[in-house]
Specification:
Blueprint lengths: L1 H6 L4 H8 L18 H8 L2 E2 L5 E2 L3 H11 L18 E6 L10 H7 L3 E6 L5 H4 L1 H11 L6 H15 L1
Length: 163
């Protein structure tokens, strides 16, 4: 996204072409339509505004500064130290995604003892490939008492519980 801003592009096609350099292909995925992950590019392009030069709907500088915190989930789990969350946890996995692998399941079960995994036909971007399936899965799994405010506070409460 920074590359698009730095290049001061004016055409969406040029922005998409530039993004092609940054998205590797998951091998064997039936959702990949060319040599790069078009779904990722299309997702990023939804934030592009038709200004000249092109700009993004989201504040790219703030997002860039926050990425380490957003991705700061404690992935290390040892016998001595394994953070866990005891609440119900739902993972929705695309069958073509390589992100949740069988070797991850024992650690996930330690960290999320009440976890449930639902697989839907699609890529890592399952919310794009199967929006109705994701909605139905969430709707049938989440308790009816969950509110938008509750979801908004979830991350901060979850991180506090892990500490």
């Amino acid at each position: 996204m920074n590359s698009i801003l730095d290049a001061k592009l004016t055409k969406r096609k040029d922005a998409e072409d530039l993004l092609e350099k940054y998205e590797p292909v998951p091998s064997g995925s039936k959702y990949i339509t060319n040599s790069q992950d078009k779904g990722v590019r299309q997702f990023l392009m939804t934030n592009l505004l038709p200004t000249s030069p092109l700009t993004f709907r989201v504040p790219v500088d703030i997002l860039g500064d926050a990425l380490s915190g957003l991705g700061g989930f404690p992935l290390q789990c040892t016998e001595e130290n394994c953070p866990s969350y005891s609440g119900p946890t739902l993972f929705i996995r695309g069958t073509q995604s390589k992100y949740i692998q069988p070797k991850h399941l024992p650690t996930m079960e330690k960290m999320f003892p009440k976890m449930q995994i639902v697989e839907l036909d699609g890529s890592h971007w399952i919310h794009v490939d199967q929006p109705e399936g994701v909605f139905r899965t969430m709707y049938s799994t989440l308790p009816t008492s969950v509110s938008v405010a509750g979801i908004a506070n979830f991350r901060s409460n979850f991180v506090q519980e892990l500490k």
